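> call design_seq(struct)
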């Protein structure tokens, strides 16, 4: 029983040692709270290129940490928000912006969904129209008409 207790204590000690070595340090926060608020506000409009569906402010990826650090450094160097955004766009392209500008390289990004909707609606309209033309009204022969009338008369006679 003592061996089991010692083994368990050794395993707990080793698991703690490994968990501490794998833990990441907390991300440093700017010493100036106003600078930090400005950085968060700016990074809310920037996309994390690793996560792609998260802002730089919300992402915990290493890339986002690096970009936040870069933004802090540039803000500390008294650069304007526009200068910082221009730097990031020059470095990573328009995809880093959550609201990229409308220009020739992003025109499909802005109007592509409407184009696909228009193409889909047109295709559906053409298909339904051609389908309507393909469906023919069934024509009954004289014998089939007489048979249908007989069945209808028999049905009316049973209802009374």
């Amino acid at each position: 029983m003592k061996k089991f207790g010692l083994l368990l204590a050794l395993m707990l000690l080793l698991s703690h040692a490994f968990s501490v070595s794998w833990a990441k340090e907390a991300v440093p926060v700017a010493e100036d709270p106003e600078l930090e608020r400005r950085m968060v506000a700016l990074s809310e409009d920037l996309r994390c290129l690793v996560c792609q569906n998260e802002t730089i402010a919300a992402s915990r990826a290493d890339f986002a940490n690096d970009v936040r650090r870069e933004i802090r450094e540039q803000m500390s160097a008294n650069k304007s928000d526009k200068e910082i955004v221009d730097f990031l766009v020059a470095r990573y392209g328009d995809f880093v912006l959550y609201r990229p500008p409308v220009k020739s390289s992003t025109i499909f990004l802005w109007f592509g969904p409407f184009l696909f909707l228009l193409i889909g609606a047109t295709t559906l309209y053409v298909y339904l129209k051609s389908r309507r033309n393909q469906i023919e009204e069934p024509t009954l022969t004289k014998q089939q008409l007489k048979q249908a009338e007989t069945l209808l008369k028999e049905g009316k006679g049973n209802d009374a």
